[in-house]
Amino acid sequence: MKIVFTGGGTSGHIFPILAICREIKRIYSKSDLKLYYIGPKNKYELGLLAQEGVKVKKILTGKLRRYFSLKNFFDIFKVPLGTLQALFWLFFLAPNLIFSKGGYGSIPTAFAAKILAIPIFLHESDVVPGLASKIESKWALEIFISFPKTEFFPKDKRIWVGNPIRREILDGSKEKAKDTFNLQGGKSLILILGGSQGAQIINETILEILPELTENFEIIHQTGEKNFKRVKAEGEAVLFKKDLKKYYHPSPFLDESSLREALAVSDLIISRAGSGSIFEIAAVQKPVILIPLENAAQDHQSKNAYQFKERGGGEVIGQKNLRPHFLLEKLKHLFFRTDILKEMARNSGDFARPKAAKIIASYIIEYLTVVITKR
Question: Positive or negative, the Cα torsion across 173, 229, 195, 327?
Fold first, then answer.
C-alpha cells in the first residue's frame, strides 16, 4: 500500500499531512505500507516528515504571486519542469493514491497523478480555497473540508471533517510548562502566536504595551525566527526598570513539544487566523483573539476567523483596527468578565474537530483496502 502526499510546502500544509501519516500508521501496521511526500524544498517541515518515516522527494514548483515580481516569470518554467519530475517519481513509485493538501507546491504532483490516472484525494484548510485547490478539485475523487461553509467545491464531493491536527499537542501539562518556560505564576497567562513566521505588526503592538501587559499578565510570545533577536532585545529594554522581565517569555518558534505545553498553560491566546491555528486552539478549548493576516490570498484568514466567531469561539480584531491600547483594554475586559472567557472556551471546544486526521486516515485505508482487494 503506497500513498504519496503533496502540498504547498509551508507548515500549514505539512502539519496536517504529518497528523494524517501518524494516524495511518496507527490504523494500518502491515509492512507493505509505504508513505512518500513529493513537493517543494522546505528544510524544517520536510525534516519532520522524514523523522516519521515518510520518504521525501523534492521537486521544482512555481508560485503565482498576486503582485508584480520577476520571480513570476521564472516560476512559469518551474511548473512544467516540476511536473516532469513528479511524473518520473510517480511512474517508478507506482502509488495507489495521492493525497494533496493544496497550495502552489502540489500542482505538479497532482497534475502528474491526473495524467497517470492515479486517484487523488484533496483536503482544503480554509473557507476560501486557493487557486491550486480549485484546479485540483476537478481531478479529485473526494474533497475533505475544514469549515462547514467552505466555498466553491461541488457538494457531491465535499466531506466536512475539520482540519487535521496532531493529537500529540492535546496532552500538554501545566507543570511541565512551568519548567519549559520558567514561568513565575500568580498571573493569568496569555499565549501569542503569529504563525510559523511570526507577525511583525503583532510583535510591534505587543512591544508598545509590554510594560502594562506584564503588570497584569504573564506572556509567552512566539515572535518568528527573523524577528526574535530584535523583539527580545526591545522587550528586555522596556521591562528593565520595572523588573517585569521575568513575566515575558519570547521564543522564535514553538516546536511540537513547546507548543503542547504552551497551549496547556495558557488562559487566552492571541493568534493569526490560519486554519491550523484555529483548529489547534479549538481542540484544547481555549478562548482566543484572532487577528487575520490582512493580505492573505482571497482574504481567507478573515473568512476563517469570522466563521469561527459565528460559533462563539473567540473575538476577531481586524489588522487595521489593531491598536496597542485597544488590545490592552480588550484583554483587561475579558479577564474581568471571566464568564465570557468560559463561554468562549466552551464554544471553541464545540467547534473543534480533533478526530479529523483519524477520519481521513480511516477513509484512505478503507478506500485502498477495497481497491487493492478487487485487484
Answer: positive
Which residues lie across from 365 on neighbouring strands?
none
Give the integer Cα–Cα distance in Å for 142 and 147. Answer: 15
Handedness of CA 368, 371, 372, 373 (dihedral sign): positive
C-beta of residue 357 within 8 angstroms of C-beta of residue 167: yes
For 49, the grid coordinates are 516528515
Write b or e for each residue in 275-310: b if 16 or more Cβ atoms lie within 10 A of its Cβ, otherwise e. bbbbbbbbbbbbbbbbbbbeebebebbbbbbebbbe
Q: What is the pTM of this model?
A: 0.92
CA distance 164 to 355: 7
DSSP string spanning 35-51?
A: EEEEE---HHHHHHHHH
Measured distance CA(340)–CA(122) in Å, rounded: 37
Identify the CATH class of 2-165+354-374: alpha beta
> For residue range 37-77, what is the model confidence (pLDDT) as tens digits?
999 887 677 788 989 999 999 998 866 545 555 565 566 66
Q: Provide φ and ψ at 325, rounded to 5°.
A: -80, -25
Instruction: Assess contact for 21 and 49: CB atoms under 8 A.
Output: yes
Architecture of 168-351 per CATH?
Answer: 3-Layer(aba) Sandwich (3.40)
